[in-house]
Amino acid sequence: MDQTNNPTLSRALAAMCTDAAGADSALQEKFAIALRHFHAMLDELQLTDVELYRIAAWLGQVARDDEVIMLCDMMGLTMRSLDLARTGSEATAQNVTGPFPKDGIAEGPNPCQLAADDEPGQRLELRGRVRDAVSGRVLPGAEVIVWQPNQLGRYENEDDSQSDDNLRGKLRCDTEGSFRVLTIRLGGYIIGREDTAVGVLMKRLGRNRQRAPHIHYRVLHPGYQTLTSQVYFAGEPANSVDCIFSTIADHIVEVTPHPERDGHQLITLDVAMEPVV
């Protein structure tokens, strides 16, 4: 970024005084980086003041539509920030939280009956074990929270036909660090609406709003960083076109016939948690 012919940028950078009352030097350093990139973007796009204020007004509409996070997601910023947050250890990678977590649901038994007997859909068992990413030892008592949409891709809090907290569960790992969740194979879905600021943008960019089928989970244990992630199914056509780019290889699991339950499917998810330093 050659900014040698940008006197305004030079003045904006110089306007930050390190010895001013209340000044935050770390914030100043990061803001200077942001300023340089913003100015470089204006230069490359040759934005006029009218165009700049049009973008500002559009961002205001994104906020009013409550789609700021969706904007970050569809631009790939959320997944990139999660990539940058990885420590390089053996810990399971974080993934997008999504809009519908409920940590306050009641804790139930392990195995967890996530789907009622009358819930439509292909029966599926999710089983796994939680361990320490450094030592490899299992973590008995780790808390696991799981949530997902139904076979039509609808979450309970956006679908009046479902009961409260349907397809949501909370359980604790047993003495072997193991957990089991009995549920159904869920459907993918379309995020957002096509008539909002972000929806219109995605349409004009030729972008789809498809999410690949996935199960959300969160794992908590004292002394470890909380893990929020998702599990995807190998062979799903939507994996390659997921609109927020969260179908990373580490989170795609094989689906096999269940060895003990006729007509059921099985996926295995082993979770490694990062100790708090």
From TrEMBL:
Its EC number is 1.13.11.1. The keyword Oxidoreductase applies. Keywords: Dioxygenase, Oxidoreductase, Plasmid. It comes from the Bacteria. Residues 110-256 form the Intradiol ring-cleavage dioxygenases domain. Pfam families: Dioxygenase_C. It is an enzyme of class 1 (oxidoreductase). InterPro entries: Intradiol_dOase_C, Intradiol_dOase_core, Intradiol_RC_Dioxygenase. GO terms for molecular function: catechol 1,2-dioxygenase activity; ferric iron binding. Belongs to the intradiol ring-cleavage dioxygenase family. This is Protocatechuate 3,4-dioxygenase beta subunit.
